[in-house]
Every structure is written in structure tokens, then in C-alpha cells.
Prior knowledge:
Layout: H1 14-22, H2 32-37, E1 48-49, H3 52-55, E2 62-67, H4 86-89, H5 100-115, H6 117-138, E3 141-145, H7 159-165, E4 169-174, H8 178-182, E5 190-194, H9 201-210, E6 214-221, H10 227-240, E7 242-243, E8 246-250, E9 265-269, E10 283-285
Parallel strand pairs: 2-3, 3-4, 4-5, 5-6, 6-9, 6-10, 8-9
Antiparallel strand pairs: 1-2, 7-8
Helix pairs in contact: 5-6
Amino acid sequence: MPLSIVQPARLPSPAVARVLRGYGINPADPALLDRLRLTPAGNLREILGSSTKIRKGERAGILSTVAYLSPSTEAGVNTCPLAGRCAAQCIRDVGRMTFAQSARSRVMKTLLWHLYPEAFLSQLRGEALRHARKAERAGMVPAIRLNGTSDILWERTPIVEELISLGIRPYDYTKIDPVKRMRHAAPEYHLTFSVDEKPGSIDTAERYLRVGGNAAIVIQSEDGSTLADAKKAQAVLLDRGSWRGFPVISGDETDWRPGDPAGHVVVLHAKGPAVRDISGFVQRVTL
């Protein structure tokens, strides 16, 4: 296969260059595009994937897929501009996302998006179309979560409306003010605000909840430090039925957030390193 000689849309920054060299890739390689989009075996690296939680939506007739890019500055470029303590607690530290192969895949896809955005979007369109056709054959609703482990403003690109035109429902979590984001996004793009430890985060969540949006919180018991403690805290809070005066629902039964009732708080139990978090990112619940 002949190599693709395409100039990147932007030159690799020193931080990106260091990441590339760490993976044995020359930042000045004229075939850099292929180094990013192909696996070491020469196969096209797919942008969209899945997870156990993503697949839970199938019980409700939703066929979802997700793009797992590098969180925070893992790839040398910041994909989560408002990331706080969650950057150290990210879902990438849970389960299969910790494998070296998964990390390489995230980084390569992220740098493909950053350095060759047109090539990235072109591939994403093709994968989205195949996903829509697969869902149609299965008699299911197709959905795509673009920010599985990132917080990119996809509404500033054509991809969100293109997905909608294919009958695909895009949805994401975000730490960026969703009221402001939705001013520039199609109403079909469902955003769930993710509460963290930063000043004003809870205020932003409450404003969004009051206009019918949804906000997600990660919880642990007041003195808990284990997964069992976190699950117990979630059960107690769900039984109480509210958080700061807003009704609550579980966020762990499925990842399909557009199916959540409006104005509800999505309760997620802490996982991985987050079970011991005391920064304020994880909300502590008195049992």
C-alpha cells in the first residue's frame, strides 16, 4: 500500500512531538497521517468503539457507539479544557482502558483529529453511516457518544448535524456550561452536565436542571473508600429520591442519557481511583 503524503493542518507542538516520539514516531515523517490512522499491523484504526455500559442501551432498543479519545493532555493536546481533579480519576483508569494498546489507540486517534481534522471527520462519517445501517437492520435507534473520554465542542464542526441527518442521536457528558453550548448546537444533541469540584460547578448544574437539563454527579459515602461503599451510597441516595432538591435517577443502568427524564440528577457511583477521592470531585453522601 503506498503511503499517504499529506501535510497536517497544523505542525505538531513540542508537547505533541514528545508524545509521538514516545511511541517511536517521527513528528516530521511525511507519512505521519498513515502512522496515526493505521495500526502497527497496517489496519485502519477505527474511531468508534463500545463498552459494557454502552451496550446496556440495547435493552431499550438503542444501538450506541462511542469515540474514546485521549482525556485531558494525555496526547499532548488538551481535549478537556475544564478538566479538574477528574483528569486523575478518569474512566480511562478503569477496566480495559488501562491497557497499553488502548492508550496508544486513544493517542493516535486524538492526534489524527488534532493534526488531520478533515481525514478524521471523513473517517468518522463513514463509520457513522455503517453504524446507522447496522442499527436499521437490527430495528434499533442509532446513537453516538462523541466524547467518551474527552470534552470537545463538536457542535462547532459539521459532524453533529451530519449525524442527525443520518438519523443518529448524538449525546455527551460535558463540564463546559451546557446552557451556553446549546445556544450553538442542534436541539437533538443531548448534553448532560458533569459536576466536579471547581467553584461554580454546582451552581451551573442547578441552572441547567432548572431549565430542564440533566446533571451527573459521582458519589461515595461520607467515609467510604471502596467500590462497595460507593454502591451503597448510590442506593441510599436513589432511595431518598433527591439531591439538593432535584429528583435523581441511576446513571449506571445504561449510558443512554437522552432517555433520562428532564431536570433529573444522574447518580453515578465512584469507580476505580475515584472511590478514594476527597478533592470534592466525588460528592460525599451521609448515609
